Each structure stands twice: as C-alpha cells, then as structure tokens.
Write the structure tokens for this entry.
Amino acid sequence: MKKSVIYPGSFDPLTNGHINIIERAAKCFDEVIIGVAKNSSKDSILDPNERVIILKKIFKNNKKIIVDEFEGLLAQYVNKRKVYTILRGMRTVQDFEYELQMATSNNKLNSKLETIFMVADGNHSHISSSLIKDIIRLGGDASKFIPKIVERELKKKLLKKG
Ligand code: ADP
C-alpha cells in the first residue's frame, strides 16, 4: 500500500526550510501532498493560487510531490484525500507548544488523523515566513533563505511603491 503524508501550511511564502522538510519527507514516504491552506489572514502576502504556482514550479520534477490547496478544517481535508498522516516541521519550543495543541485538537476532531513531526535542519531552523517578509520589506537580502522565484514575487508585492 502506498504510504502518503499531507504537509499542510500557509507557505506565505515558501522558504528553504519548507523545501528541506518536503524533500526529506519524500525520502520517507511514497507521496507527499503539500496542502496549501487558503486562509483569509489579512497579513498574507501571496494569494493561495500564487503560492500553489510557486510550489508546483519548484517541485515539477519530483513525481512523489503533489501540490494541492484546501479551505476549512484540516480534519475534514484528510477525509477528502483519504490520507490521515499529517507532517509538521518542528523548529523551536515555541513551535512545540503550538503544534502540540494543533495535533491534539485535530485528533479530537478526527480520530483517524495522526500528526508526526520532522525536526528542522539546523541550517534552516531560524527561517520563518514572517521573518522573510520583514527582511524583504526592509530592503534586506533574503536570497539565502528562499528560492529565486519567491524572492522575485515578494519583491514585486512588497516593494511595489515607496
Ligand atoms: P502554518 O501557518 O500552518 O504554521 P507555515 O507555512 O508557517 O504554516 O509552516 C508549515 C509547516 O512548516 C509548520 O509545521 C512549520 O513548523 C514548518 N516550518 C516552517 N518553517 C520551517 C523551517 N524553517 N524549517 C522546518 N520547518 C518549518
């Protein structure tokens, strides 16, 4: 039986930290489904469709990696995909507190759902999407932390006018 996992997140924007988790997961699973959450957060920079396009471009050569988007509860999305294993990345103790609450709540909402964690690579554990947005917004160089295509899109959005 095919072993699949869902890696859900905002990916606003995708960073090298996310990419590292996805590539490592693809070595552990037959299929990694990236679930882009369509949230209505006012702070989001890229719209869900733009995030999906970026992810598809980045992973176009890896057949094991599928890019999808979902709206609403993850606990319902897993039923739609019939994949009940969720992967999340763990960077810090702050992540742990939030992730523990989410994993427990999701399991209470859907008892089939199991969350597993992958520890962030030491080279990427300091990277967060919000930090990237701040760096670009303030005119810094984020090229070490994000793919070129992400840098281009963010600059377009964040540095549009002075
Ligand atoms: P969400 O809004 O759901 O937290 P994110 O896009 O911020 O979505 O993150 C998706 C997942 O990727 C989360 O599990 C998060 O902890 C993990 N993650 C984010 N940045 C990194 C990183 N630099 N290294 C490893 N995992 C990360």
